[in-house]
Specification:
2 strands; two-stranded antiparallel sheet; mainly alpha; single chain
Length: about 350
């Protein structure tokens, strides 16, 4: 399947934003070693796509909430049909259909962004000054636009260069290898950090799953994907890394708003009375819910609640007064059936 339509779409959005900055008066020349018109075009490419995908993102959050609320019923079905995988799958599909929950909806925004990422990756790799003139003008680019974009820099590093660029590639771009590697390394670290924080933010709000498979997926998202970027990030052009970091920052803000708007459901057994008493029949830890409640305190999990002070017992008030006659609690006590005298 040809992906040319994606390359044309990505190029069209980039060129429209660049034309806007040009009309506003942002120069194509470098300021602080940066061609801001092209860097801002990549930034607002993210904004454009996230605005388009925002309704899908809201549906993703609602679907995740519905899946969390169904976890007690799912667990009951797993216990009921233990060993009967076919019946279990049939019952679970019927449950999802009845409750209008879609387990695949949680992956939809990420799936929709993959073609965009691949399209931008291809377009930026295509910005090679040594290409024949006939190839420079494909995907809707004019020769002037191609020349301007292929020479675009961020802090004196070409946006089409990457950490793993060969000396020949750097020479073609007229780039300094040390400058490219330092800037690319900083951006890759930012990409890893923001990717970790977006996953951590979601887990802090929704809680760790108790199911081992779901918890393994959460750990993979939290630690595995950011670590994989340490290696794969060296293959990404600087412009793609700019896109990724911007996308993560946008996601952090968007998730914070949506999670406030659609808070995680209160799982059964998690509520306590205002006095702190637990419902009858629960243990000290309460009945385990399929999803453990998230920690409060925002992105980094800092606790905002003030701990209640431990009451201090006044031992002096409980001590006998000086000169008081000792009291023997056993004295005067008689068996219930023993007559007096």
């Amino acid at each position: 399947m040809s992906l040319d339509w994606i390359y044309y779409a990505i190029s069209w959005i980039l060129l429209r934003w660049h034309a806007l900055w040009d009309a506003i008066g942002i120069p194509d020349d470098r300021v602080l070693g940066t061609n801001w018109s092209w860097v801002l075009s990549i930034f607002f490419l993210v904004v454009t796509l996230r605005v388009i995908l925002f309704p899908v993102f809201v549906k993703q959050i609602k679907s995740q909430r519905a899946m969390q609320a169904l976890q007690p019923k799912v667990k009951a079905l797993q216990e009921k049909h233990k060993g009967d995988r076919e019946t279990l799958q049939k019952e679970m599909m019927e449950l999802y259909k009845t409750e209008k929950a879609n387990p695949l909806m949680g992956c939809l925004p990420m799936v929709l962004q993959i073609p965009v990422f691949l399209g931008l990756f291809h377009v930026l790799r295509h910005l090679n000054p040594n290409l024949p003139e006939r190839l420079k003008t494909i995907y809707g680019w004019s020769l002037e636009q191609f020349t301007s974009a292929s020479g675009a820099h961020l802090f004196n590093a070409p946006i089409s260069a990457k950490f793993g660029s060969t000396p020949e590639e750097l020479a073609a771009l007229g780039a300094n290898g040390t400058t490219v590697k330092i800037l690319a390394a900083v951006l890759i670290l930012l990409m890893m950090t923001t990717t970790f924080l977006t996953s951590r933010q979601m887990i802090l709000k929704t809680g760790w799953a108790e199911d081992p498979q779901q918890k393994m997926i959460q750990r993979l998202m939290l630690y595995g994907i950011p670590f994989s970027l340490l290696i794969s990030g060296s293959l990404f052009p600087i412009g793609v890394v700019i896109y990724w970091v911007t996308n993560n920052l946008f996601t952090l803000g968007q998730q914070q708003w949506v999670l406030r708007k659609f808070p995680p459901p209160q799982m059964a057994g998690a509520k306590t009375s205002s006095s702190g008493a637990r419902p009858a029949g629960t243990t000290a830890g309460g009945p385990k819910s399929p999803v453990q409640p998230g920690r409060s305190g925002g992105l980094f999990g800092k606790k905002n609640a003030v701990e209640e002070p431990v009451p201090v017992v006044d031992t002096k008030a409980l001590a006998p007064k000086p000169g008081a006659k000792p009291v023997n609690p056993k004295k005067g006590a008689r068996p219930a059936n023993k007559p007096k005298g």
